[in-house]
Design goal:
The chain is of the alpha+beta class. The protein contains 5 helices and 8 strands; from the N terminus they run H-E-E-E-E-H-H-E-H-E-E-H-E. It folds into 2 domains: 2-98, Rossmann fold (3-Layer(aba) Sandwich), CATH 3.40.50; 103-183, Dna Ligase, domain 1 (2-Layer Sandwich), CATH 3.30.1490. The chain has helices at residues 2-7, 70-85, 93-98, 121-131, 157-165, and strands at 12-14, 20-23, 26-36, 44-53, 115-118, 133-138, 147-151, 172-176. Strands 1, 2, 3 and 4 form a 4-stranded antiparallel sheet that branches. It has a 4-stranded antiparallel sheet with strand order 5-8-6-7, with helices on one face. The protein is elongated, with a radius of gyration of 21 Å.
């Protein structure tokens, strides 16, 4: 997206969550201007950095991988405040805060493998018993972290469930394992 924006004559500025701040009722960020290259290994050059109000940018886009934690939520609160000031935030802060990427599958129930989301270890155990081969994953991580395939006869089953749910403190998604997944998630090829 940044390369496309640059090709259309836009300057690209970046910041991290730690660079966002509210001062005197204005949301600003310490941002650095980048120029993009065509090399995927060495893809940008950093230029000057400035602290600017978010409303001074033509567009603001939040792109943040999990963990979805309180700092993520705080960043969306700051972005919501920036919107009220007139900033053009193109991925609405309330929408990205309220729309969990893993739970979004519930909107497509017709295509959904048997799925359970719970903090309750007993429910997870019953789901594993019923489905026999299950994938467990936490809702707040990404990139394959904290994903376990668990079968009914797995000798580590109890410890995996306990570790994932952390005594009811963490929500876990359980889904029946689909063997065809080894072919990838593109049904057309």
């Amino acid at each position: 997206m940044m390369r496309a924006a640059q090709a259309r004559g836009h300057a690209c500025w970046v910041c991290e969550q730690t660079d966002l701040h509210l001062e005197k009722s204005s949301v600003s960020a310490r941002a650095t201007r980048l120029s993009l290259t065509d090399n995927d290994e060495d893809w940008y050059r950093a230029h000057e950095s400035e602290t600017r109000p978010l409303k001074s940018f033509a567009a603001v886009l939040m792109r943040k991988d999990p963990p979805f934690d309180l700092e993520y939520v705080a960043s969306t609160w700051l972005l919501s405040a920036a919107v009220r000031e007139g900033a053009k935030v193109f991925n609405a802060p309330d929408a990205i805060r309220d729309h969990n990427e893993k739970l979004a599958i519930a909107e497509f129930a017709a295509f959904l493998a048997p799925t359970l989301v719970t903090r309750d270890a007993a429910r997870l155990q019953a789901f594993i018993d019923a489905e026999r081969d299950v994938v467990l994953k936490r809702l707040d991580v990404m990139g394959g972290e904290n994903i376990f395939r668990v079968r009914t006869d797995d000798p580590n089953r109890n410890v995996i469930v306990e570790t994932m749910a952390q005594g009811g403190a963490r929500s876990v998604m359980a889904q029946r394992y689909i063997p065809e997944i080894v072919k990838g998630d593109n049904p057309c090829c």
